[in-house]
From TrEMBL:
Residues 1-23 are annotated as: Disordered. It comes from Rhodotorula paludigena. Its main location: cytoplasm. This is Uncharacterized protein. Residues 11-23 have a biased composition (Low complexity). InterPro entries: MBS1/2-like (IPR045230), ZNF706/At2g23090_sf (IPR026939). It is found in: Cytoplasm; Nucleus. Keywords: Cytoplasm, Nucleus. GO terms for cellular component: cytoplasm; nucleus.
Length: 72
């Protein structure tokens, strides 16, 4: 049993390595963007980044709350 488990773990490690530099990287990056700017649709990874973006790009607009951006 222990040997089988080790084999499985090493297979998973190899799979993780393959994913790190492969095509699936794009998917992972897209998943990292949790919110998008309501004004220009730019994807942003979190509210801190969004706030920095919004304050520099849309200084005249009121800053949306984190709650209003988070997917329900
Ligand atoms: Zn924007």
């Amino acid at each position: 049993m222990a040997r089988g488990l080790q084999k499985l773990e090493s297979q998973q490690k190899n799979a993780a390595k393959a994913n790190a530099g492969g095509k699936s990287n794009l998917k992972t990056r897209a998943a990292a963007f949790k919110i998008s700017c309501p004004s220009c649709k730019l994807p942003l990874s979190d509210y801190t980044n969004f706030k920095a973006h919004f304050e520099s790009k849309h200084p005249k607009l009121p800053l949306p709350t984190e709650e209003s951006l988070a997917p329900k």
